Amino acid sequence: MIGKLNHVAIVVPDLEAGTAVYRDTLGAKVSEPVELPEHGVTTVFVELPNTKIELLHPLGEGSPIAKFLEKNASGGIHHVCYEVEDIEAAAAKMKEEGARALGDIKIGAHNKPVLFLHPKDFCGTLVELEQA
């Protein structure tokens, strides 16, 4: 059911410094920061030949990423995102298999429908499904 790895998301305590590491130290192409108030984050995408890295930084006090940084002050891997052909069918299959969705399907950073799945159901990893 899942397709290719779309991105790995990394929470960073300092978005400019995190961007500089990927752009300047590693020589990667990085996007401009994009604020996503509906998700409580600011994102920067790092383009790689075979996938992307999404740098996440809290946007506002209610950001779920702020809670992550409280527990992990230096940041770290937050989630992995896999592509699916049909997000509605994937959501139905997850429910049928007993996997727990975290919220409803919503529009993600790429302006495509996404769904987050509970890490306890996926080997301790927060999983995002994104419609390809």
Protein architecture, described:
This protein is 22% helix and 36% strand. It has three helices and nine strands. Strands 1, 2, 3, 4, 5, 6, 7, 8 and 9 form a nine-stranded mixed sheet that branches. The chain is globular and about 45 Å long. It starts with a strand and ends with a strand.
Question: Main traits of this protein?
Answer:
132 residues, alpha+beta, 2,3-Dihydroxybiphenyl 1,2-Dioxygenase, domain 1, nine-stranded mixed β-sheet, 22% helix, globular
Secondary structure layout plus pairing:
Elements: E1 5-11, H1 15-25, E2 29-30, E3 34-36, E4 41-47, E5 52-58, H2 64-71, E6 76-84, H3 87-96, E7 106-107, E8 113-117, E9 126-131
Parallel strand pairs: 1-5, 6-9
Antiparallel strand pairs: 1-6, 2-4, 3-4, 4-5, 7-8, 8-9
Helix content estimate: 10-25%
Radius of gyration: 15 Å
Whole-number mean pLDDT: 96
CATH class: Alpha Beta
User: Which fold name is given in CATH as the topology?
Assistant: 2,3-Dihydroxybiphenyl 1,2-Dioxygenase, domain 1
Q: Can you count the beta strands?
A: 9
Order of helices and strands: EHEEEEHEHEEE
Structural class estimated from helices and strands: alpha+beta
> What is the makeup of the main sheet?
9 strands, mixed
Shape designation: globular
Summarize the structure.
22% of the residues lie in helices and 36% in strands. With 132 residues, it is an alpha+beta fold.
